[in-house]
């Protein structure tokens, strides 16, 4: 080797370095974009659970109004309503707790809804994940008072079992 050649980089090595750098940058950008899209899908799944809870509450009010001036809804009525509103591809619903009607007729149900969403980079895990959320549905004493229904969405990390223990 001559003195002029020492310390220089061969052109093929520069080209290889540029190709490898471009590949790494492409992988990093793809990973960031995929993570953002997965986050958007997870958020959409959580919002869908909110819609499921609202649909359930509206169906309970309608069922109570259709029942006429009879007494409060029974646990079976609530369970049937949950199965009819959570089925048909609307997500999965599970009744965790139901407080009996109070003196003013108010009833409180603790319900968990879940939706499946697609994960982005699922190389070593499942391709789908589940978004779960717990809701407290507070029904008014008057079965026709749709405005008096309150649907409270709990944080994603709150267990429905814990919420139900506080309601019963």
Break the fold down into its secondary structure elements and pairings.
Blueprint lengths: L10 H56 L8 H12 L5 E8 L7 E12 L9 E12 L10 E4 L6 H8 L1
Helix pairs in contact: 1-2
Task: Walk me through this protein's architecture.
With 168 residues, the chain is α+β, with helices and mostly antiparallel strands. 45% of the residues lie in helices and 21% in strands. It is built from three helices and four strands. It has a four-stranded antiparallel sheet. Strand 1 and strand 2 (107-118) form a beta hairpin. Helix 1 runs antiparallel to helix 2 (75-86). It is rod-shaped. The N and C termini lie far apart (86 Å).
Summarize the structure.
The chain is α+β, with helices and mostly antiparallel strands.
Chain oligomer state: single chain
Strand order of the largest sheet: 1-2-3-4
Low-confidence stretches: none
Structural class: alpha+beta
Q: How is the main sheet built? A: 4 strands, antiparallel
Q: What is the share of helical residues?
A: 40-55%
Strand content: 15-25%
Number of helices: 3
Termini gap = 86 Å
According to DSSP, the number of beta strands is 4
**What is Rg?**
27 Å
| Average pLDDT | 81
Gross morphology: rod-shaped
Which descriptors would you attach to this protein?
21% strand, four-stranded antiparallel beta sheet, alpha+beta, 4 strands, 168 residues
């Amino acid at each position: 080797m001559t003195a002029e050649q020492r310390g220089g980089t061969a052109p093929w090595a520069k080209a290889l370095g540029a190709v490898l750098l471009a590949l790494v940058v492409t992988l990093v950008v793809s990973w960031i974009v995929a993570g953002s899209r997965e986050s958007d899908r997870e958020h959409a799944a959580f919002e869908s659970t909110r819609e499921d809870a609202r649909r359930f509450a509206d169906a309970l009010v309608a069922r109570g109004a259709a029942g006429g001036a009879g007494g409060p809804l029974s646990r079976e009525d609530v369970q049937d309503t949950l199965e009819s509103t959570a089925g048909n591809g609307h997500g999965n619903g599970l009744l965790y707790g139901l407080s009996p009607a109070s003196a003013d007729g108010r009833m409180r149900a603790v319900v968990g809804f879940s939706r499946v969403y697609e994960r982005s980079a699922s190389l070593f895990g499942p391709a789908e994940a589940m978004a779960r959320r717990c809701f407290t549905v507070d029904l008014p004493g008057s079965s026709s008072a749709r405005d008096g229904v309150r649907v409270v969405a709990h944080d994603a990390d709150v267990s429905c079992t814990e919420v139900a223990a506080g309601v019963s």
